[in-house]
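[job 4417] fold queue: 2 targets
>>> target A
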Amino acid sequence: MLLIENLSKSYGKRQVLKNLNLRIEPGEIYGLLGSNGAGKTTTINILCNLLKADRGTIRIAGQTVSKSTPKLIGVAPQENLLYRSLSCQENLDFYARIYGLRGNFRRQRVAACLAAVNLGDRARSVVETLSGGMQRRLNIAAALIHQPKLAILDEPTAGLDIEARYEIWELIRRLRSEGMTILLTTHLLDEAERLCQRIGILKSGKIIAEGTLEELRQRVPAKEIVTIETPEEENAISRARELGFTHRYYGSDLVFWLPEPLELAEIIAQFQGIPIDSIARHPVRLEQIYLEVANPV
């Protein structure tokens, strides 16, 4: 559905994209992760033909990016592009007209998109009266009004409470089940874990790691992560070295990589003589993978 090859872009002497290569298959949710300044926004702007690349090629549904290809893309930006004084129906009708939808077909698309995001009963509600989650769902509906081949969802749940976040996640899963191809950017790593079939980590304008969650887990040589709170961290680290455990600090958390899973009692026994205030086992998560790949020791 989307093929990017050797895409490069500079602003003056600052190179933002460096021979970026990316492929998204039809019907896939692809998560693009990266810190601010990694090149995500520049990539999206080039995809939408709002910005010219210095070199490289992009194909969307087999077509090279041009003035005609934006109709193949639906973009739901992080900041809602909604008219707050208009109703849900009026907002979607406005965007449908921009894309050239006419007559009964336009009205059908407005009704269908409202139903798709569970806002059919709020068609006449003014946007400013909606909750944040409802507004975000309407923002996604506006991106889908013209039946694009590829939906770009930029931080779709940023700033939402947990209930609204779950509603958006369910909507995204439903869109995929209906055949929509989605490029998702997010800073919420658990969101990428839950939704994405494949994930790419973007740093300094190029993909530095890519794959399914299981494939990315191979980048961390551990079968399990253990977080320990102890007043004697240096002693715990020294003991871990003797046991062949790698240690890391994630923020202020001291964690150890275990080459094989162990029962909690076995782990505690390995640190016998060292006071432990708390201990927790968990699988290798995208958070650890991202930190290890983006900021290698």
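>>> target B
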Amino acid sequence: MNLLHQLLQHSHFVISALSIVVVDLTLSGDNAVVIAAAAKSLPPSRRNQALVGGAACAVAALVVAAFFATRLLQVKFLQVIGGIAVLWIAVGLFREEPPLEASATHLSSFWKAIWFIVVADVTMSTDNILAVAAIAQGDVVLLLLGLGLSIPLVVFASSLLATAMDRYPVIVYAGAALLGRVAGQMIMTDAFTVQILAPSAALTYLVEAGGAIGVVSAGLWLKSRRAQQT
């Protein structure tokens, strides 16, 4: 009887851990684009380090945030700040800066990428934090294991996206438009925005479309300006 009970406990633990991985990966498609976009500006030698470090820091922050999931969704301006960070990353996709030479500049850009990855990833994940927390039911080990298993998969997807962005410029435009839409959605679903504007679905869709179009337009303007200067 005790053996059966232990087997049931272990099977429940494994199923819950796998469920967290599936939920996290299913809802992290946008996050992978953000991570890839933030790391794209780095030299290839530092890119993988930023991908792994940023994803690991974001998961650690998500574990802490999961314990305050309900309150986190009520924090005013949290998603507005995250949305602005995502917009900055999206526009940054169009900045074709020359290779960095100074090691100090390398280091500064590296930690800036890490910071953007963590801020954007955590603020974008406020909705699926609830799903992950519900599955884990306060079990820290389960949270760490489930989210930890998803790190290599998200990093792998982000690395592929960053490489694809280097080779195929059209992906940059598609990724920037997606991030613009996500930023608009984050800003419109922030607790402050909901309280003040109580936006309708139509207004939310309009802002999302505006974010996507605005980011791509800003990118095209940056490119044309750079062409005129050169």
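[job 4417] complete. Note on B: DSSP finds eleven helices and no strands in the chain.
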